[in-house]
């Protein structure tokens, strides 16, 4: 399989991290989103008509986009997806939370401070994003202050998904000091066999 990705993308890192932990071989193709490499006619026609990364090309030529959908596909039949129906639904709830509440705040702040620079109206937007990030992290802390993992008593793709941007939150000027449960959780994930940093490629 081939992973079309951008090295510093948290969404792409989720997929690379899971593939490494699973020991699943894959080919990596860098697509520089800052240079428009996901907007070329060839990419839009053959890889992803939405012009996004990550996009996984399966061995049979089919393509799969959206990072959490890719995680779900790769984790099928493994212990990273709970067998219990309720816990599986909880896992999905965290994946939706990651995309709708966490990423739009945490990831955007990281991007502004590390990659793109602050927007012209940052004096209005940044406090809003910081408040949104705080709400998301407080919700995670509420769970992780009393549990090792986000779902049940085992690691799942919910943890992999939310780890990707949370572990870099301070690059977006988001302090993790108030969240001891999150910090301990980050350490547990970083200690997993097969763990790799965001800069890793196969």
From TrEMBL:
<dbReference type="InterPro" id="IPR004045">
    <property type="entry name" value="Glutathione_S-Trfase_N"/>
</dbReference>
<dbReference type="Pfam" id="PF13417">
    <property type="entry name" value="GST_N_3"/>
</dbReference>
<feature type="domain" description="GST N-terminal">
    <location>
        <begin position="1"/>
        <end position="82"/>
    </location>
</feature>
<dbReference type="Pfam" id="PF00043">
    <property type="entry name" value="GST_C"/>
</dbReference>
<feature type="domain" description="GST C-terminal">
    <location>
        <begin position="84"/>
        <end position="202"/>
    </location>
</feature>
<protein>
    <recommendedName>
        <fullName>Glutathione S-transferase</fullName>
    </recommendedName>
</protein>
<dbReference type="InterPro" id="IPR010987">
    <property type="entry name" value="Glutathione-S-Trfase_C-like"/>
</dbReference>
<dbReference type="InterPro" id="IPR040079">
    <property type="entry name" value="Glutathione_S-Trfase"/>
</dbReference>
<dbReference type="InterPro" id="IPR036282">
    <property type="entry name" value="Glutathione-S-Trfase_C_sf"/>
</dbReference>
<dbReference type="InterPro" id="IPR004046">
    <property type="entry name" value="GST_C"/>
</dbReference>
<dbReference type="InterPro" id="IPR036249">
    <property type="entry name" value="Thioredoxin-like_sf"/>
</dbReference>
